[in-house]
From TrEMBL:
EC category name: transferase
Annotated organism of origin: Salix dunnii
Gene Ontology biological-process entries: methylation
Principal subcellular localization: membrane
Keyword terms: Glycoprotein, Membrane, Methyltransferase, Signal-anchor, Transferase, Transmembrane, Transmembrane helix
Topology of this chain in the membrane: Single-pass membrane protein; Single-pass type II membrane protein
Cited SUPFAM superfamilies: S-adenosyl-L-methionine-dependent methyltransferases (SSF53335)
Protein name per UniProt: Methyltransferase
Positions with biased composition (Acidic residues): 152-167
Amino acid sequence: MAIARLARQAKRPHGFCVKMTAVAIMGFCFIFVWSMFSSSSTSATTQRESFDDIAEPVAGNTRVSRPHTQSREREKEKHEPGRVDEKQNGESDLELKKDEKKINGSVSLVVTEHESRRKDKKEEASLERKEKDDGTKKLPNEREKDNQGQEESGDEEPGKEEEEGEVVDGKEEANGGENTEGNGYVQGDGDLIQNVDQESVEKVEHESAGSKSTGKMRKIKGPVFDPNAHYSWRLCSTRSKHNYMPCIDIESGTGRLQSYRHTERSCPKTPPMCLVPLPHEGYATPVHWPESKLKVLYSNVAHPKLAAFIKKHSWLAQSGEYLTFPQNQTEFKGGVRHYLDSIEEMVPDIEWGKNIRVVLDIGCKDSSFAASLLDKEVLTLSLGLKDDLVDLAQVALERGFPTIVSPFRSRRLYFPSGVFDAIHCIGCSIPWHSNGGKLLLEMNRILRPSGYFILSTEHDNIEEEEAMTSLAASVCWNVLAHKTDEVGEVGVKIYQKPESNDIYELRRHKNPPLCKENENPDAAWYVPMKTCLHPVPSAIEQHGTEWPEEWPKRLETYPDWMNNKEKLIADTNHWKAIVEKSYLTGMGIDWSNIRNIMDMKAINGGFAAALAHHKVWVMNVVPVHAPDTLPIIYERGLVGVYHDWCESFGTYPRSYDLLHADHLFSRLKNRCKQPASIVVEMDRILRPGGWAVIRDKVEILDPLEGILRSLHWEIRMTYAQDKEGILCAQKNMWRP
């Protein structure tokens, strides 16, 4: 009633004050009613407290902590004064799903990162690594943190899950305009019918002037292989057919190409999910070692240009179904043994099999060089160049000699620095002096201090010889001997790399210059060659400061630069026991058929060392995301390469008799978006009738067994204990 009376008075001309009073009264009434029905002033606090069990949003590469670990997070914040309190970012930061929090106790969040906070993020990551490693130190020869971000321990217990940092040193820093999608990160369907709830990875790459920084990785827990997936396969339809090498052969483009191989390693954007066919002439069980030194089955290495090559060379011949290698016929006139003896006479310090153990042979021509050195206990790794259209590297592998295929033009070879005792090149027609001498500087990088570079030519070219002499002098290589062998009719020149940096300072013209201090000489994966000289190692913690012990002592000799010698010794004894008590006798493998072996995830070379005195050789592969233990492997007198298993390996199909993978797949599920492509690659490089021994977690081995069965492999043995297991499988000689 009072309000109605006031309304009637408001219509009068003198009712302005009454109008204002009415408005005020109505406002107070509204406030009173709102206060009665709204929540209490403490409700906002109550709502925030109800989310205390959810951790603060953190960087994309950092795990969300559980409630009982929040005290540890607060302790980290004390060390991070520049960290922004992300609780103030609004209500949206609090809207986390409870089921996300229950995925193995952690979930990764994607957060936009500002440039000014990168330093704080690195400090946080280093603190977490310190807690996880429990004070474990890295080996001194590991790659630099800036280039690697490694977090895997080389001597960790089998099955122990680790976090792997992106360790791609200079990946495609200078790609020369070629395909840069070589890392296999682009997922493709191929011929795979699969619904995989696998662990995905998000890379956040930061570019800096002239270099690439380490990518951040986001982890989402999930199986490597979907146990309910179904697989169907088809044969590859490619130009190179049964000799298909995905990262070397060109299988794209239109028109007829003069060459079917890349000038540099270049992988398909989508990892191949097809199976390489067998040769059209048929494939049979390879000739066993050591008979394979003298003959191999011609059908196993058939090539369109091989027949024409045989007619022009006397060191190989076709005899019925075999390709033979007469002992008295080699590329070396006078015989390869005479050639090796003459080198040793020219430089007596070259004691084959003692002082010289690991040799790199540039170009695959006459494999008798590697065969004769093997008789002297020298392990020769042959480098098959991409322009070898006759595929002689495949012939070398079929004969049972260590061989790898790689282009050699503008990127570094996949070896660490200072590991080869000697490098040999005969008639390889490589322009060492071109492009600022990059190719010779690459030889200087991988050659051991005081190591030998042996260059042999049949016909001397005065201009090339003068250019080579000038270039060798500029890198301070000493000419130990230069002689033309009257019997072999070949000119041999032997150079020696300096053993210290003193001579570099005495050069009048500092060209090529010394490399910068932050230039990692061991960085080799997709790293362009540099026109600079790497200083000779001088610190005791660097590998290459001393010449190794004579063979076979060096196999179990650990110099001062090797950290944690006790763990290395324990690792050697561990693998020696496994090989002797299990692999050689307990798996049903006929070792008389085994010659070429690959350890797909070598750490310190313990597996290869355990087989060193058997009639086999092992290619030790150190994944690029793992600690850099490859210098240790070479120091022990063994051979190996760096590789990223998200890509295809640099070798021919049907190259190996046995593949060994120790916890490889559990380490790769955070890198490769299509882990099944690794199984396809194993099928490509393994010979029919070959074996695979896989050690990993049971949750990985179970679906992996299904994939192998879909490839018509025979599962010969499975064993599991405490969530760890072993799977032994054999590839069939045929497929339906």
